[in-house]
Amino acid sequence: MIEPNGAASPRLRIRNLQSPLAGPFSFDLAAGECLTISGASGAGKSLLLRMLCDLDPNTGEALLDGLPRSGMGAPAWRAGVVYQPAEAAWWLPTAGDHFKPAQMARVRELLPQLNLSPALLEADISRLSTGERQRMALVRSLACKPQVLLLDEPTAALDPVAVAATERLLQKELDAGLAIILVTHSEAQAQTLGHRSMTMCERRLTENGAAP
Ligand SMILES: Nc1ncnc2c1ncn2[C@@H]1O[C@H](COP(=O)(O)OP(=O)(O)OP(=O)(O)O)[C@@H](O)[C@H]1O
């Protein structure tokens, strides 16, 4: 969508988003941009991600490619803005059960990029290692083809090789236009993937490098 001044709308526009627990938050995120968020445990990072995907009640304005969230249903918003919590929930016996047939081509393309065997799709989910489940959760998020991906410490359970594979894939998705908000405690990861960084402190966000 085009703004009145002729510029393209940001992929995600957030204005005064708040709940009784956190905020207000205001920022824009462009297509292909990665905003990293760091901050102490309990600072409010997950609260923000849950508000952004409309899982927790909140007020304020949120627009996706210029279209207000208030004008679309929650399922439509969450199809565009996908949240991957630190520990993703699985509610069916196998990972493969969580995908629709139409997603399988994309899933089979993503698995080797994260060093995951297709056989893991058929295994009981409880048999997957923590790191395998974490990478499978990313496959699940990307198979939804979101416009904005909200990632809460997506590599926390991974070894260095798997971290590198995950970062390569995320970089590729960014290059293809995906916008990412990445909560990470890794300074190196923030520098590798991030275009901008913010710090969450006492449930408020500050842009790093911005004038006080
Ligand atoms: N529904 C709720 N009601 C009241 N307090 C809550 C609720 N959800 C979270 N909190 C509190 O809000 C604070 C921020 O929680 P949040 O999960 O956002 O932290 P975080 O920055 O993601 O931490 P971590 O890095 O440990 O995951 C915590 O003190 C938490 O206990």
UniProtKB/TrEMBL annotation:
Record keywords: ATP-binding, Cell membrane, Membrane, Nucleotide-binding
PANTHER family named among the record's database cross-references: ABC TRANSPORT PROTEIN ATP-BINDING COMPONENT-RELATED, ABC TRANSPORTER DOMAIN-CONTAINING PROTEIN
Name the UniProt record assigns to this protein: ABC-type iron transport system FetAB ATPase subunit
Organism annotation: Duganella violaceipulchra
Top-level lineage group: Bacteria
Spans through the membrane: none
Occurrences of domain ABC transporter (ranges): 7-211
InterPro entries referenced in this protein's UniProt entry, alphabetically: AAA+_ATPase, ABC_transporter-like_ATP-bd
A Pfam family reported for this protein in Swiss-Prot or TrEMBL: ABC_tran
Gene Ontology molecular functions: ATP binding; ATP hydrolysis activity
